[in-house]
């Protein structure tokens, strides 16, 4: 992706909306693409681009669905377009600071932890009697059957000759696939609506109150199991102990320690398939922790 080209597209979209050029235009790289922050006296907006073809259109839908179900601010989508071969969306600028930068003091941590776990628990109370969402039109009553359909294309990618995964990791993913029924059986029912990438780098907080001021960047939202959100709470700032607080309020089912690594490994493989990301040491480290938890179970 050409950084200057994306910046130009974003500025053109801003001018089309506000009939003037932005005074400030700041582009930043993200895991999945680029975001451009644009400011003038007429307004502040964000323009997003993605490395994955079709991701922006999916996120437009995801933001709309999430906005209806979560009890905190979610950016409004003002415009979805395509220019010079790139999809983009122009969205609301939410005020706040990335929760990655939450101050390391007891009041800030306690307030944030209490507020965010309440928000997630309320989100996860949204269920669907049809079960787990494979597509908007198709549900499976069994998580295991839905997982087959979500992740079999990912398995095929991992095992393919085009995959960057080592022979050892390919064998490990074969083992994970063989064990999926055993591992997922304890949570095979009771779907919840999930954000699907709710680590705190996708959360904004109010620096005055330390409460949540925005939830950003939903991934594959839909009716899955709440643990598809919860394992992400270990991804960033594990020192906040968000999972422990969630568990105090809404107890997790036995075996979560295995499933958190199992789901995390499949999530890593999904990101690799989507955008070509691959960090062998990261994946091996997570696999080692899965193997330890599995042997101790």
Could you give the topology of this structure?
Layout: H1 3-18, E1 24-29, E2 33-40, E3 43-50, H2 55-69, E4 77-83, E5 86-92, E6 97-98, H3 106-124, E7 132-135, E8 138-140, H4 143-159, H5 167-178, H6 180-184, E9 192-194, E10 203-205, E11 212-215, E12 222-224, H7 227-230, H8 242-249, H9 256-275, H10 280-296
Antiparallel strand pairs: 1-2, 2-3, 3-5, 4-5, 6-10, 7-8, 9-12, 10-11
How would you characterize this protein structure?
Helix 3 crosses helix 8 and helix 4 (143-159) packs across helix 9. By secondary structure, the chain is an alpha+beta fold. The strands form four sheets. It has a five-stranded antiparallel sheet, sandwiched between helices. Strands 6-10-11 form a three-stranded antiparallel sheet, covered by helices on one side. The relative contact order is 0.13. The protein has ten helices and twelve strands.
What is this entry, summarized?
The chain has 297 residues and is α+β, with helices and mostly antiparallel strands. Helix content is 45%, strand content 20%.
Radius of gyration, in Å, reads 20 Å
Give the termini distance in whole angstroms. Answer: 45 Å
Molecular shape? globular
Q: Give the % helix.
A: 40-55%
CATH topology (fold) name of the largest domain = Aminoglycoside 3'-phosphotransferase, Chain: A, domain 2
Strand portion: 15-25%
SSE run: HEEEHEEEHEEHHHEEEEHHHH
Strand line-up across the major sheet: 1-2-3-5-4
Structural class: alpha+beta
The biggest sheet amounts to: 5 strands, antiparallel
Number of domains: 2
Number of strands: 12
Question: Which stretches are low in confidence, meaning pLDDT under 50 for 5 or more residues running?
Answer: none
CATH top level of the largest domain is: Alpha Beta
């Amino acid at each position: 992706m050409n950084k200057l080209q994306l910046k130009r597209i974003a500025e053109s979209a801003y001018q089309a909306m506000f009939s003037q050029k932005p005074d400030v235009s700041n582009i930043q790289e993200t895991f999945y693409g680029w975001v451009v922050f644009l400011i003038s006296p007429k307004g502040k907006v964000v323009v997003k681009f993605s490395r994955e073809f079709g991701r922006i259109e999916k996120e437009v839908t995801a933001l709309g669905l999430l906005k209806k179900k979560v009890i905190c601010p979610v950016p409004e989508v003002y415009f979805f377009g395509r220019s010079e071969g790139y999809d983009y969306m122009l969205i609301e600028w939410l005020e706040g600071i990335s929760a990655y930068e939450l101050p390391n003091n007891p009041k800030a941590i306690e307030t944030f932890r209490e507020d965010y776990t309440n928000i997630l628990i309320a989100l996860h109370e949204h269920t669907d009697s049809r079960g787990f969402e494979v597509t908007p039109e198709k549900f499976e009553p069994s998580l295991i059957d839905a997982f087959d359909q979500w992740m079999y294309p990912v398995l095929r990618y991992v095992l393919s000759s085009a995959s960057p995964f080592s022979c050892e990791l390919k064998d490990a993913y074969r083992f994970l696939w063989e064990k999926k029924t055993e591992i997922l059986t304890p949570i095979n029912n009771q779907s919840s609506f999930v954000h699907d990438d709710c680590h705190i780098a996708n959360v904004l907080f109010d620096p005055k109150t330390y409460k949540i001021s925005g939830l950003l960047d939903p991934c594959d939202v839909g009716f899955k199991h709440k643990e598809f959100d919860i394992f992400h709470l270990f991804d960033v700032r594990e020192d906040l102990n968000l999972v422990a607080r969630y568990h105090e309020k809404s107890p997790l089912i036995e075996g979560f320690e295995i499933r958190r690594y199992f789901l995390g490994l499949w999530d890593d493989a999904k990101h690799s398939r989507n955008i070509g990301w691959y960090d062998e040491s990261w994946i091996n480290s997570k696999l080692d922790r899965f193997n330890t938890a599995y042997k101790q179970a």
